[in-house]
């Protein structure tokens, strides 16, 4: 699977209608949608699709036709995201009506091509990255072992955050790639781990 950490835009025109596709990280989807609606006051539709992982590592998907005929825009856009195996991304397609009705088939082609053009732009600019599943664990350690924990976290390339200072130690949270988290667990097996 691939993911994206920045915005990229693609476009497509058909019979005078313009389709502007904005591909972006899922975490920025809602705020970007609100911003685009303010910036594109003359647009007639804001079609969207998203794919992201929830806290149980399940893929959640959504789409919105925003008034376009059912099955003509949101679902085809989502299918492009699926086909490219993108995760934790969203796409918003802003449509400016050009005066000619495109029909369902024409809309499917237009929305699909706009999304594909955005993805092709992301590929050509090297913006798509392999998706790495991260995990997070909390554990308690004594104050004397804290510096060793920090050293191991840095060495393994995982993030360590101090969460709670306790009477006899400290509770820390470590987040990073799953296999690296397992290395942290193996190193500090004498500590009590909580998920």
TrEMBL record:
Domain of life: Bacteria
UniProt xrefs under Pfam families: Impact_N
Gene Ontology BP term (one): regulation of translational initiation
One cellular-component annotation, GO: cytoplasm
Domain Impact N-terminal: residue ranges: 15-119
InterPro entries: Impact, Impact_N, Impact_N_sf, Ribosomal_Su5_D2-typ_SF
Family the entry assigns: Belongs to the IMPACT family.
Protein name: Impact N-terminal domain-containing protein
């Amino acid at each position: 699977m691939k993911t994206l950490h920045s915005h990229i835009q693609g476009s497509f025109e058909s019979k005078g209608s313009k389709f502007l596709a904005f591909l972006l990280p899922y975490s920025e989807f809602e705020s970007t949608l609100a911003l685009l609606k303010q910036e594109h006051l003359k647009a007639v539709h804001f079609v969207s699709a998203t794919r992201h992982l929830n806290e149980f590592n399940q893929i959640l998907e959504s789409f919105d036709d925003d008034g376009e005929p059912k099955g003509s825009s949101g679902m085809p856009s989502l299918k492009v995201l699926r086909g490219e195996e993108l995760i934790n991304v969203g796409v918003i397609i802003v449509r400016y009506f050009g005066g000619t009705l495109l029909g369902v088939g024409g809309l499917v082609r237009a929305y699909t091509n706009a999304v594909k053009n955005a993805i092709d732009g992301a590929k050509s600019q090297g913006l798509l990255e392999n998706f790495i599943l991260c995990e997070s664990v909390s554990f308690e350690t004594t104050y004397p072992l804290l510096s060793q924990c920090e050293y191991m976290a840095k060495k393994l390339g995982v993030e360590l955050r101090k969460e709670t200072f306790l009477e006899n130690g400290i509770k820390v949270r470590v987040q990073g790639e799953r296999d690296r988290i397992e290395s942290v667990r193996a190193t500090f097996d004498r500590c009590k781990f909580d998920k």
